[in-house]
Design a protein that fits this description.
31% strand, Immunoglobulin-like, TIM Barrel, 46 strands, 8-stranded antiparallel β-sheet, Beta-galactosidase, Chain A, domain 5, 755 residues, 11-stranded antiparallel β-sheet, 3 domains, 17% helix, alpha+beta
Length: 755
């Protein structure tokens, strides 16, 4: 249905087949409904421009408002606020999405812009002796979804606003030095979602009246801190600017302020985010990633990884205690473990100083030789580096003015255990030149295949520090850092794989592999938190960005983490072979599961993931998925199926071509065909049991399958298996020698090719 815009007095209504947007000029409330007319969200419409250095104290709320309607556009004008200021708010409407453009702010007065607050309500009452509350967050949907809300699983990302949560979270790159919660550094996004219940929450049939979801995604990065403030029963997106500190946004005059939003819709929030990504690509705001990677780059992207960080944590190593002997011992134990990782990643503490991008020759006298021996063993090399940290700028021909500065005009110093460091100001040309040179030398000297790029979560808020060029402040500062460093490294080695923590599609040009690390605050919930993070990151597969699954720090959660990682990308292990925080040692079954999944993982970088039996509502069940389906080019090519949900209830059977099972399993086509048509399948069972597959005998000209069982240690068992009436039963058990099964290979053969 084409866009229709109707006006009636001071009311404006915009309708498409997916949504209905309304604004009431009398009350200054706007509402957003889905295609069936169900309320998704509502809020006071006027944004607040909070300013300092005003010549007079007046309410930030406007005294008058009016609307102008054009072709697919509604512009709402607010006058007489902050003294004599005017704000223009522009909405543009398309068939399947809406945009909310940056605000136009005009004032004849001298002001410093502190922040921009969306959907703010006037406080209903004043608390005697309490804080000066100039506004109340007023955006309301029953549920708001903020994927990176909290570093730990203590607070669900699906927030019931009636819980009255009072907190400010960051929806961008910087998790440190800001207000409120420390966000998950594995899931900074640049979006949030909302969906609503019916007015009668618990009445008969109320779930059918629950609305579709809307995703509020950014179209471009702002030069400020992106926050979401919760208070009362509402929330407000906030852009923190702090011109009162940095003197960069001044009036009198006209300024462009605030966010550039894209609103997309879906039956639930997973689908709404998927459509956000789709619109960004369709409107050419970003391009697909890794569409045609070289064979080597694809190998590195999807290779299972082993990372030294877990050993460093298990041994409690401080920065100056990690050395070549410990590294060599870790390599030896990894190689003796039987774990078939294809990439060996050396994590933090190998450098002499942050900023040098050189190993410590005293602690690692044979570092280059160790790297070469890993290559000779057939392994790819990964190196961790926090490229924007700097311990001693003078050693690079710089000084402290080349670091991010505090409002006092001094460098911001951070610390990690015994290390003190500042942050390079990447907006300065001199710093850019030094970093580019160092990055190129680093690649030439060590020739890594993969870089674990660490840093973005350390970006300070503008309350704490800022760069010299404020055009790159806030969210844009990380973009500039990636542009400088990653650009230099990829110019030196185009096939280099960059692995980074981050869901934001707006930074897609700079990294190749998403990492949901780090689970350090999730002890006891490593497996559940990984599932929830992959629930969101799996959508990146449609942009050509796989997810590296990493792992927790204990062996008990490993198999579940690898189960959930297999559909969306590659496997990882941080484990220590001397034991974990529970005192547990690796069991052969764990090594076998890792190897088996590594053997059947799909080798494409662009794909779609569909959560199966996921919950969309509730603080405990929402944003988890017990089962997954992966499709490529519209074909179902992988199923990861559990027999039970996380709450203990059984999952539904059959699923796709799996008619029945009594054990968790991952089933994948090992060809370009769908599971239903493939002549070669791989299956990893998570325990003893059976499954029944549905096949069509006529498709293959016979009713025989050759089964190859692959065991830990390299032995195999091959046999023929007949199937009848289109059903193939597979039994999973230990053989007489008690070897541990890694995976089963199933080849469907015609009668003439049985032998």
């Amino acid at each position: 249905m084409p866009i229709q815009i109707e006006t009636n007095g001071q009311k404006v209504k915009v309708t498409s087949s997916l949504y209905r947007w309304e604004w009431d000029g009398e009350t200054d409330f706007f509402s957003l409904r889905d295609g069936q007319g169900r309320l998704v969200s509502q809020a006071p419409h006027q944004p607040l421009i909070l300013a300092a250095r005003q010549t007079e104290k007046r309410s930030p709320f406007a005294a008058s408002r009016s609307a102008a309607v054009g072709d697919r556009m509604v512009k709402i004008r607010y006058a007489d606020l902050n003294g004599a200021a005017v704000v223009n708010v522009t909405w543009n409407f398309y068939d399947d999405f809406i945009t909310l453009e940056p605000l136009e702010y005009q004032t004849p007065q001298a002001q410093d812009i502190v922040s921009v607050v969306y959907f703010a309500a006037q406080p209903r009452f004043e608390i005697p002796g309490g804080p000066d509350l100039r506004y109340q967050p007023g955006f309301y949907s029953r549920y708001v979804v903020a994927p990176g809300l909290c570093m730990s699983p203590s607070i669900s990302p699906v927030i019931d606003l009636h819980a009255g949560l009072t907190v400010t979270t960051v929806l961008g790159s910087g998790a440190m030095r800001g207000p409120g919660l420390a966000q998950q550094w594995g899931l900074p996004a640049h979006y949030f979602c909302a969906f609503n219940t019916s007015d009668q929450w618990n009445s008969i049939g109320a779930k059918k009246l629950q609305s579709d979801a809307v995703c509020w995604g950014l179209k471009e990065l702002p030069a400020g801190d992106y926050r979401l403030e919760f208070r009362g029963n509402g929330c407000s997106p906030v852009l923190n600017l702090r011109a009162d500190v940095w003197n960069h946004l001044k009036t009198p005059g006209t300024l462009q302020l605030g966010f550039s939003f894209i609103l997309t819709f879906g039956a639930q929030f997973h689908e709404a985010v998927r459509n956000y990504y789709t619109v960004l690509v369709r409107q050419k705001m970003l391009e697909f990633k890794n569409l045609n990677p070289s064979p080597r780059k694809k190998q590195v992207l999807l290779s299972p990884q082993y990372n030294t960080w877990g050993v460093e944590c298990a041994l409690g190593l401080r920065p100056d205690e990690f050395n070549g002997e410990i590294l060599q011992d870790t390599i030896r134990k990894f190689q003796n473990s039987g774990l078939k990782a294809g990439t060996f990643v050396i994590d933090d503490k190998w450098e002499g100083q942050y900023g040098q991008l050189r190993h410590d020759p005293g602690r690692f006298p044979h570092f280059e030789e160790q790297l070469e021996k890993l290559r000779e063993a057939g392994l790819f090399i990964g190196l961790w580096a926090a490229f924007l940290r700097c311990e001693d700028p003078t050693s690079l021909g710089l000084d402290e003015s080349n670091l991010l500065q505090t409002p006092a005009g001094k460098p911001l110093w951070l610390s990690h255990q015994t290390r003190r460091y500042g942050i390079f100001d990447v907006t300065q040309p001199q710093v850019q030149q030094v970093l580019q040179q160092r990055a190129r030398e680093f690649i030439r000297h060590y020739n890594p295949d993969l870089i674990k790029f660490d840093f973005g979560y350390e970006l300070p808020s503008l309350d704490v520090a800022a760069p010299a060029d404020m055009a790159w402040a806030g969210e844009k500062l990380l973009q500039k850092g990636l542009e400088v460093v990653v650009g230099a490294m990829k110019a030196e080695k185009p096939d280099l794989v960059i692995m980074y923590y981050g869901l934001s599609p707006l930074l897609l040009n700079y990294y190749d592999l998403h990492s949901p690390d780090d689970l350090v605050y999730c002890s006891g919930d490593y497996d559940l938190e990984t599932n929830r993070r992959i629930f969101f990151s799996s959508l990146c597969g449609e942009l050509g960005l796989p997810t590296y699954g990493s792992s927790g720090y204990d062996w008990a959660s490993a198999q579940d983490i690898w189960f959930d990682s297999a559909p969306s990308g590659s496997l990882g292990s941080l484990h220590c072979f001397d034991g974990d925080e529970n005192g547990d040692m690796p069991r052969p079954e764990s090594i076998a599961r890792f190897n088996g999944l590594g053997a059947i993982i799909r080798q494409e970088t662009t794909f779609s993931i569909h959560p199966l039996e996921a919950a969309w509502q509730g603080g405990l069940r929402a944003a988890f998925s017990p089962c997954w389906e992966r499709s490529e080019n519209g074909k179902s090519v992988l199923l990861a199926l559990r027999t039970h949900r996380f709450d203990g209830k059984p999952t539904r059977q059959p699923v796709g071509d799996v008619l029945e099972m009594n054990v968790n399993l991952v089933l994948a086509s090992l060809t370009d065909s769908a599971i239903s048509d493939s002549l070669r399948l791989g299956i990893v069972p998570f325990g003893a049991g059976y499954c029944i597959l549905k096949r069509a005998p006529s498709l293959f000209g016979g009713v025989t399958a050759r089964v190859v069982e692959h065991y830990l240690g390299g032995s195999r068992r091959t046999y023929l298996l007949d199937y009848f009436d289109g059903f193939l039963r597979l039994d999973f058990k230990l053989d007489g020698n008690h070897e541990v099964l890694e995976w089963m290979e199933i080849l469907f053969i015609s009668d003439e090719n049985i032998l």
